[in-house]
Design brief:
Pfam families: DUF3793. The chain is an alpha+beta fold. Strands 1-3-2 form a three-stranded antiparallel beta sheet, with helices on one face.
């Protein structure tokens, strides 16, 4: 069983990390509270310059929701408007 936050993020967010998808949403167990902020700060420091961001969307008693996303613009399929992503 995966027991580290690195493994959880790597396993569930690999498509966004590799650039296959624009984003992935992952649930982090609340018992990893001590690790999460340190990991998010380190990952953002290391990967923001490459366009990859780690953002905590919300937290509750049991878990935190983490959004891993590529910050770039894309075109809407039906029009020519540019839609910024976060």
């Amino acid at each position: 069983m995966m027991n580290s936050i690195d493994h959880i993020i790597g396993f569930h967010c690999a498509p966004a990390i590799r650039g296959i998808k624009l984003s992935n949403l992952v649930s982090i167990p609340r018992d990893m509270n001590d690790q999460i902020q340190v990991v998010l700060t380190e990952y953002n420091k290391q990967y923001n310059t490459l366009g990859l961001f780690f953002f905590e969307l919300c937290r509750c008693k049991e878990r935190r929701l983490l959004l891993v996303f590529r910050k770039r613009q894309y075109r809407c399929g039906r029009c020519t408007a540019r839609v910024p992503v976060l």
